[in-house]
Design goal:
The complex is a heterodimer of chains A (about 220) and B (about 230).
Chain A: H1 3-33, H2 39-51, H3 54-65, H4 70-79, H5 87-112, H6 115-123, H7 128-136, H8 141-156, H9 160-166, H10 176-185, H11 189-218
Helix pairs in contact in A: 1-5, 1-8, 2-5, 3-9, 5-8, 5-9, 6-7, 8-11, 10-11
Chain B: E1 2-10, E2 13-21, E3 25-29, H1 36-44, E4 51-56, E5 59-63, E6 68-69, E7 77-81, H2 92-97, H3 105-118, H4 134-146, E8 152-156, H5 164-174, E9 180-185, H6 188-191, E10 197-202, E11 205-211, H7 212-216, H8 220-228
Classes of the chains: A mainly alpha (about 220), B alpha/beta (about 230).
Chain lengths: ~220, ~230
Amino acid sequence: MDLQALGLTLRLAAVTTILLLGIGVPLAFWIVSTRSRLRPLIEALSTLPILLPPTVLGFYLLVLLGPRTPFGRAAIHLFGHPLSFSFAGLVVGSVIYSLPFAVQPLIAGFHAVDPALVEQARLLGASRLRILSEILLPLSMRSLVAAATLCFTHTVGEFGVVLMIGGDIPGATRTLSIAIYDQVQDFSYPAANRTALLLLGFALAALLLLYTRRSREALGHG
Amino acid sequence: MVEISARLHQGAFTLDIACALESQWTVIFGPSGAGKSTLLRILAGLIAPQAGRISMEREPLLDTIAGISTPAGRRGIGFVTQQAALFPHLTAAENVAFGLHGESSESRRRRVTEMLRFFGAESLAARKPAQLSGGERQRVALARALAPNPKLLLLDEPLAALDDASAQDILARLLQLPTRIVYVSHDVTEIWPLPADVIVLENGRVTATGPLQQVLAPQRDRLLKLLRS
């Protein structure tokens, strides 16, 4: 078992999940509450990574993060090195790649809150921030937990985007899914099997936890 | 005095009204689909009419020509509907305190107790909405709407789903309030004893206004027939 890859994967998933909740909550709230004509465009862009092949996203991110773009040059100025082939670059890629897994459950959760409650909060003088933090979020905890679980699990299993942006640098960008690829290339099938089983078990456990919780809540035991 | 003129087209329905609320109690009366709830939602600032003007004690809340539209939360208007719409994750006391944001905790606590006591719901303070009966929920919803001391209280059939005893008790308490109240109902027996003016709405238009018994008595049979249809 590549413990270094395991540690890096968990760190990447944790950082990505925290950042995605920070971005996803205000973005989902904007999408459900705005009357802006930009809404369909923003909603489509935030859902795009589900449909795009990871290599397409990875390719464009690789170009964007490189030293030939203003964003890439700004990143070099800020971090002292290009974002591509670094842990920070992986975080940027993972956040974009897993964005729909944060935003979509949150949009569904916010839509499920009775609009009469939001109207009452407005009538009682609540600001948009209070409506989000004191009404919508507490009543959408199930969706928040689902979003966090899906983001974490999806990031743990990432391959295409990680390989395109980060390559395969031990301790810096080699995640578990890249480690499996390496193990297969080396014909180390037993090692690849152990790593694959770990990822399979992890994904299954996360989904089981999510659905068990949902099922208990539906039965009124949550 | 509250002066209202509003024109709103929503699909096949058109609301086109001009009226004034002069007495402390005004009943908006009419059959289902006449536009009663729509009128209240326009007053509350929850829907914007295509054209209109609303002023309360000469202060403009809405003027589509001048581009004025005071947000719902700053109109000083409370609104209670048949559906209490209490925040399910908060206790009755926390629900009532919601509109008192910015006040000191002592002043909020005092006001919450005062309002719950006024509606005979003081013992319910620590309960969540799921643990309350329909009548208890309406008492808490009324306490919540009145806690910030609104200038106008809009009541959209708030007692329609309650038993007679609860409805009569709540109505008696509402009649003690100094607040200006607009009361929507299509229950003639419920509104008949109220010391109120009435605005009769039919198909989105005002068809009669004036003291309630004076306006409704001559056309009681016609209105009852209209309501039954």
